[in-house]
């Protein structure tokens, strides 16, 4: 597997130092397998990493997926209590 570039440092990763994870084509050096959050950098292992895109994070810093709120759903209306209503289909 020589010739693979490390996701973190961009240098070649050779078999004895290679880290890879299921679901990603990226590879890392064992020493580069750290949380991608700029404020963290904790060294991760296969037992405690979280994959987001092509980067690995610790559980605390993995980005949260952005969901759709009720206001973004077409044809949804919100009542004063916060419950959502959909228009009744024509009879």
Folded structure, characterized:
The chain is mainly beta and 91 residues long. Helix content is 0%, strand content 22%. The chain has a domain of 54 residues: Ribbon (Cysteine Rich Protein), CATH 2.10.110. It starts with a strand and ends in a 6-residue tail after the last strand. The radius of gyration is 21 Å and the shape is elongated.
Keywords:
91 residues, Cysteine Rich Protein, two-stranded antiparallel ribbon, 8 strands, 0% helix, elongated
Please write out the topology.
Layout: E1 4-5, E2 12-13, E3 18-20, E4 27-29, E5 50-52, E6 55-57, E7 77-78, E8 84-85
Q: Helix/strand/pairing class, anyone?
A: mainly beta
Helix count, DSSP H or I runs of 4 or more residues: 0
What is the CATH topology of the domain at 4-57?
Answer: Cysteine Rich Protein
Q: Give the neighbour order of strands across the main sheet.
A: 1-2
Distance between the termini: 64 Å
* Rg, Cα atoms, Å: 21 Å
Per CATH, the class of the domain at 4-57 reads Mainly Beta
In total, the number of strands is 8
Q: What fraction of the residues are assigned to beta strands by DSSP? A: 15-25%
Helix content: under 10%
The residue-averaged pLDDT reads 81
Element-by-element helix/strand order: EEEEEEEE
Mind summarizing the main beta sheet? Answer: 2 strands, antiparallel
The low-confidence parts are: none
CATH homologous superfamily identity of the domain at 4-57: Cysteine Rich Protein
**CATH second-level architecture of the domain at 4-57:** Ribbon
Shape descriptor reads elongated
